[in-house]
Amino acid sequence: xxxxxxxxxxxxxxxxxxxxxxxxxxxxxxxxxAALTRAKPPHxxxxxxxxxYARGGCPIGADAEPSLDPRxxxxxxxxxxxxxxxxxxxRPRLGRLIAALTAxxxxxxxxxxxGAGKTTAxxxxxxxTTVPVAWLTLESTDSxxxxxxxxxxxxxxxxRPEVGGAVADALAAGITHVEAAGLLAEAxxxxxxxxxxxEVDRIxxxxxxxxxxxxxxxHAAPAARIVLxxxxxxxxxxxxxxxxxxxxxxxxxxVEEAGEALAQLGRTDVDPDRAVAVTCGWVTGVLFEAWGAAxxxxxxxxxxxxxxxxxxxxxxxxxxxxDRDFLIGTAVLDRVxxxxxxxxxxxxxxxxxxxxxxxxxxxxxxxxxxxxRCHTRFREYLLECLxxxxxxxxQRRALGLLLTGEGHHEEAVEELLAxxxxxxxxxxxxxxxxxxxxxxxVDVAERWFARLGPHAAAxxxxxxxxxxxxxxxxxxxxxxxxxxxxxxxxxxxxxxxxASGRAAATxxxxxxxxxxxxxxxxxxxxxxxxxxxxxxxxxxxxADAGPSPDPPPRLSGGPLDALVMRVHSVRGHLAxxxxxxxxxxxxxxxxxxxxxxxxxxxxxxxxxxxxxxxxDGGSPEGGLHAIVxxxxxxxxxxxxxxxxxxxxxxxIIARSGSLIFDMQSRIVEAKLHLQLDEDAQxxxxxxxEVRSRPAFDRYRYVGEMADTWYGLALLRLGExxxxxxxxxxxTESMRRADRIMDLPRAAVYLAEAAWRxxxxxxxxxxxxxxxxxxxxxxxRHLLLQALTDFPAVASRRIxxxxxxxxxxxxxxxxxxxxxxxxxAAMETVVELREFGDAAVVIDGDxxxxxxxxxxxxxxxxxxxxxxxSRDELLEALFEGRTDxxxxxYLRQAAHRLxxxxxDRVGPDLVDGRIQLADSxxxxxxxxxxxxxxxxxxRFSGEERLTCTLQALELAGRGRYLQAVRPSAWTxxxxxxxxxxxxxxAAEAAELAFALGRYxxxxxxxxxxxxxxxxxxxxxxxxxxxxxxxxxxxxxxxxYLRCQRSLGEVGAEPSASTRLLRDRLRx
Length: 1066
Fold this sequence. Notes:
The chain is of the alpha/beta class. Among the domains are: 40-251, Rossmann fold; 460-585; 696-818, Serine Threonine Protein Phosphatase 5, Tetratricopeptide repeat, CATH 1.25.40; 820-982, Winged helix-like DNA-binding domain superfamily/Winged helix DNA-binding domain (Arc Repressor Mutant, subunit A). Helix content is 58%, strand content 6%. It contains 50 helices and 17 strands. It has a five-stranded parallel sheet. It has a four-stranded mixed sheet with strand order 13-12-11-17. Strands 8-10-9 form a three-stranded antiparallel sheet. Helix 7 links the parallel strand 5 and strand 6 (224-230). Helix 46 runs parallel beside helix 48. The longest helix has 27 residues, at 968-994. The radius of gyration is 37 Å and the shape is globular.
């Protein structure tokens, strides 16, 4: 599609186009042409519903007008599909080529020299399809990954409004820019969409931006198409690398196309064969008569110096001097208007624009001929001319001030930095830095800090505050302390702390970590109504031995909410972490401690997956690697991986300057020796070194952690009296300061120590304190972990309980349930569905072995780690028969199973054992069911009920292998699972009743009685429900049915059931 514009009055609108290879041509020699434009017009045809971009606040609807505010105008210009002018030379072969490539390939590159017609060709191709289009034109400032993501989402949201806000939500969740790009791609769903990114060469030297683009491409659905337009091939790290490509030779004019374009230019005297031969079909060369310039050479794949000579001679040389000066003097502007030219010191802008409208130059026009955009290659030439004049810096400063006035503060900073106008840049950066920080474009912020240096300390202090936030956000606490010290030396620290609660809080945060508590307190104002100051005071409270005089701060919606929630996590107030901060920065900084909370509440697999994502994304947090990750890996029993995380984290901590994290990492190392190595002496030596440090006594919460594990080490070494004293100190300090994260563990260890010291009352009270703390946390996971070290603590409390439904008896059942293996992260290759109608699924496809005995073989292997001896299988599945018939049947069952699965999967007979391949993991419904019940047992209250109901739903489709004629083993397994289900449903029924969920409790009780009509607990729940609903007659009726049921086996209701009957009848 080669563009043409109407001739005539210079105010005539030529059609707002952004097509680099399109030639706007007019009838008549030397008439002006709307040529080769890089326009990003406000009037261009909108795509999509015209919705407002949800997070940016920039209206980009179909009725957008030139009166848009500057920020809206610049965004709209970037994300609007260019339009074709009313008259143009069509090139349908290019439309067909691009349409065919996008039909076959997910990613298509359109790569050629500037002026080759790339954008015009893509626009024409898009007009031939009904697939919606999202368009984004890049600029050099879009290389910041957060900025690129924001604009990419805005482009897509025009066509798919529902994705608006996906990036903001993703960044607020603390994930990386690359992962956020993937989530944006996944948000597109399966509906077709073509995403065009033009001028991709603007980011070829920005690896973070390329990673964002690759992340989007990698996760885009099969129905999505991505078209990348630029001068050079883009190497994206995606599996299915660019398979479709449009090159220079594809875009070159054919003789017929050149003839038609020249005819419409009125140049019928020109031989199109010669024009194409001389220019190699380069579109710009043909349309702007480059074929007539001496020594002009444009070869496939790049511009040559003669192009500049041509532009100087054939374009600039034919203009009057005032017009040449105007073009060069305004070259720094992407869009030239009389008003903007005036700001750059160019008078008579309207006159000059009117004159240029009558010239034949590679520009495009919009706003009724009052705004001009130069073609990219022409503008590059003009900028080179400006450089040769030597006044580029002055022009860039003027541009920066213009952009500031228009509200484009971020773009203005870049221009002012380029002009070395550092004071102006600082003032502008103060306005832009908060947006940059919220977008998590830390590299942009760091570059500004480095360039502005001492200038950042002047003004409002916004830049210094932002640099402090970068420091604490990346756990560079020594850097934060150095910034605060520099301000102190300049006499500015107290002034800034008094003016900005955020600055004061981040300085205090840094000082806290490097061991300078007195200075941390000194920079905080007494005014605790400032939410940032209150957050910092909450942090400093971790060092105190007693209770805080202030309540926990409320979330303010600002970035320092991250600090509040991190302290919630350290204190063990895990329920408070359910809130989500409004600030993206806050959520990003909080991410490691959310992972820690998941581990603490028993969601170990999820915590590990999130840690791996952060690890693979290059997370810089030493606390994540050396503390949070090591604890997760200890829980998973992965010793070597834990040691590697500890090593990596220590290196980061050393650079961070955090004395706190260093001490905590040593404590976690001691925990590793105790839990995985059973080396109490090694743990003792590490903890004694930590306890000897000068900073140790000043940070009481660290002391509590150390005392807890030191107490365990001493118990393991038999030093019970010393262990008790240490654990008494730890639990008392935790209780007084309301720090309960480690209290369940410390109190369990204290209960064991007190028992060994013959103090039974203290042992009981300590155990109950552990249970109370766990219930406050909302999870019994940490309590159960500690009781695994000393199960006798639970046993003694259970023995003292008469109530069969007491909390300690629940804990005892949970501990027994932990005997079931619960793999944390296992690859699922073969899925065995055992409840109801049995099925085998491999890689998503259901397969049919044909023999029911094959299902039994697979079920047995799944329940026994994937392997069993032949004799075991004969004993379990063939009633112990070893005759040739039984052996042959077993071989046949295994063979049929191997055929249905895959020879690579197995099972195979190796040294008398039938086993699946080492790489195979079987997801057995029955094994997963028991694991889910064990996981549910770690929780309490509503969360435990929810988890139990989810597990029971899995087993609700029917009995275990119900259509299989069972062997003795299958029948025993079936009865066992019935018993497990009855136990779980009975416990859940009691819990549902206690929570007031009478309908749920009733259904669960009925399910228990369907399995086992002799379960009195279910009859008691039924009686209690009837009483709660006011149906006293039903209470007695239910009791009588219970009595009749038990009478069938010669039994009668227990004393507990009779007592309940009597109590409910009163």
